[in-house]
Amino acid sequence: MNKKEVESFKEWYEFVKDENANEIPVFNREVRILFSQCSENGKMNLCELLKLTSDSAVEDYAMRGMTWRVLAEKGYAILTSRQSYHFYRLPETDEKILLTTWEETPEPLQLIRRYKISTDKGEILISGHSAWLVVNPSTRRIVRPSDFTLRQPVPKYTVDFDGIPTGKIAVPEKLTVLNQRPICFTDTDSNGHTNNSRYGAFVLDCLPVEYQKKNFTDFRINYSKEAVKGQMLQMFASFDDESKKITIVGKNGETTCFEAELYYV
Fold first, then answer.
1. What is the pLDDT of residues 199-245, one digit of tens each?
2. 83: closest CA among 13, 169, 208, 173?
3. Separate counts of helices (H) and strands (E) for the chain
4. 69-99: per-residue pLDDT in tens?
5. Can you give 84-103 as a three-state secondary structure string?
6. DSSP string spanning 125-157?
7. Tell me, what's the pLDDT at 191?
8. How far from the centroid of its chain's Cα atoms is residue 18's Cα?
9. 214: which DSSP letter?
10. Is pLDDT above 90 for 4?
């Protein structure tokens, strides 16, 4: 076997000036898309995208001294509330990508984080927008961003988002029952509930095959109630072929755990 130079993947920060002339860190991360992260079409699947983006947000905070353990010791847990992604195209197996993420001006009750995924040649693949709740891990009471003082300065910085806003998802009255699935041990994370990335699998796995194969352009999800191990999620959907939109709802009994939308061409 011939000796071959091992390809390296870097992580680094760049800085931008916000409205108050403060330097805001922009976290960059090079990644190669692995075979196991892709569906049968050779493109990155939805749950792996959600995992990559949320893990990169966690890594950004960790690089700045705010690991999940440090946050817990200080009485904080940060939970994904809403996400929206616009797909120019999905990354493919073995493709090298650059993920860029940064915080933007927070809302009164939520932190705001943005994502951009591009190829190593500069082609933009995905734009993302997410909202996060800071809560007390014991009481689950919401902590206002203004009271979350571990990272300074608080950014006053916003970049236009080319996807669908992370607003409330309107659920149609008539929904079709699809399937149900249990929340299992490997679905949960150290916060004790289903990791946000797993809902990407829940959404796609419940769809009929003909909809799983659509070319999706946008994905939105609202996390409503934490699903925990041992619960059973029943999946419902509405298929609007005229608007080319699928609405998916996951419920534990009468309690809605999440609502999602997929748009396709």
1. 999 999 999 999 999 999 999 999 999 999 999 999 999 999 999 99
2. 169
3. 4, 12
4. 999 999 999 999 999 999 999 999 999 999 9
5. EEEECCCCECCCEEEEEEEE
6. EEEEEEEEEEE-TTT-PEEPGGG--SSSSPP--
7. 81
8. 24
9. S
10. no
The pair of three-digit structure tokens given for residue 8, joined into one six-digit string: 């390296």
The answer for residues whose C-beta is within 8 angstroms of residue 5's C-beta and 6 or more apart is none
pLDDT at 2: 59
DSSP β-bridge partners for residue 121: none
E strand or H helix that includes residue 56: helix 46-63
Over range 34-38, report the average pLDDT. 97
Q: What region, left, alpha or beta, does residue 127 occupy, with left being phi > 0 and alpha being psi -120 to 50 degrees?
A: beta
Q: What is the C-alpha separation between 234 and 198, in angstroms, rounded?
A: 15
8 Cβ neighbours under 8 A, 6+ residues apart? none
Q: In whole angstroms, how far apart are CA 106 and each of 26, 109, 110, 112, 145?
A: 16, 8, 6, 5, 7
Q: Are strands 11-17 and 77-87 parallel, antiparallel or unpaired?
A: unpaired
What burial letters (b/e) apply to 82-112, b meaning 16+ CB within 10 Å? Answer: bbbbbbeebbebebebbbebbbbebeeebbb
Beta bridge partners of 181: 233
Residue entry with tokens 């009929």? 208
Taking residue 202's Cβ as centre, other Cβ atoms within 10 Å add up to 24
